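Annotated sample (chain length 401).
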Amino acid sequence: MRSSIQIRNEVKDLDERISKASAEFASAEGDAKDALRDQINGYKGQQRALNDMLDDVLAEEDRVRRGGGVPLAAPAAEPKAGAPKTVVDCLMGARDEFKGLGFGDTLRFDVKDAYTDFGLPGIQQTDYSLPRQTSDALPNFGFLDSLPTGTTKADILTYFEKNESAYKNAAAVWTPGSRKPSSAMGWKQASSYIETIAHLMPVLEQQLSDYGQLKSLIGTELLFGLRMALADKVLTGNDENGIKGILKNASIQAYKAKAGDTVADSVYRMGTDVFIGSGYQPTHVAMHPYVAESLALEKDKQGRYMNVVVNGNLWALRVVEDLHLTETTGADSAAKTTYGVLTYWNQAATVFTKEANSVTVGLVGDQFAFNEATIRAEGRHGLKVTYPKAFAYLADSGITR
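Output written by the structure step:
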């Protein structure tokens, strides 16, 4: 099924053909005039059919949008051979088919709902997966990109969070005539709000029809800003009515480095804390780039590199770098900047999307008088933390710069 953007592009193309044929019709005579009349009527007939189709497509997109995202049909023509196919290529379609963006036009990303059968009898589990929201040229966003994703229709995520202090396993040998022991479930209800992340960027009207410039603007600057803000939020967000980041969650495990320990020592000890505290083996360790740099450059007493990180893993934990694992306290000459490390089981939290990132064109102020326009990029996301004890955070790794 074609998307609404693709159908509008075809309608625009037919408008141009009708305009051209009408100009030729005015100066034509005899059979040529009749042929052009038939051609114009044929184009108008195609437009009516497309407009009827557009109504159905818009209704379907609205239905799916309310369910968490709008399906974007495959482009009518693939991008030129050899070009890397990014999410922006899928969003804008093939270069040769692109007709530009008009005021009020909106491009939306696809949110795919894929069913996964784990073979469990009588149980159905659904996997909601989102495509990467960045272009291939953008950096990996560390901690954010390591978390699972899902879709939601809610403005407030209400769920059960593991409460280790309330859990009680009373299972024991039972003897006839005595009361059987009762265990307590260690769960408490928690809530998290969906938050809108957005920003605007001015453009010239000419850029709206320039595929190359528009692709660069959307893929590098607009989406980069959204993704960077979300990456910051899932770690450091502290909004009671928005995203509360992992580092602001009072239930995660705080770790303080032991005297004489290296960063690698601390990571191992934090992994043990995660396993004991949550029952889950850690899978990842996120660290500020300065910390990762110190590990890569670590040497023994003979000046030989230790190579403690092998194939991107430290103690079998996947190493991810994240710029947001830093904190500055104090001010001026008394200011102190620390660089942190977070060891965790990456299934302990989930990033949810209510509305996938979209790009909309409009006017702000008197831009019309200057042949300018504004592009707005926005998305709505939330964070659910089901197992807070599956995170252990070392705020000060001891690395300085």
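Annotation: DSSP finds seven helices and 17 strands in the chain.
Annotation: The CA atoms of residues 25 and 32 lie 8 Å apart.
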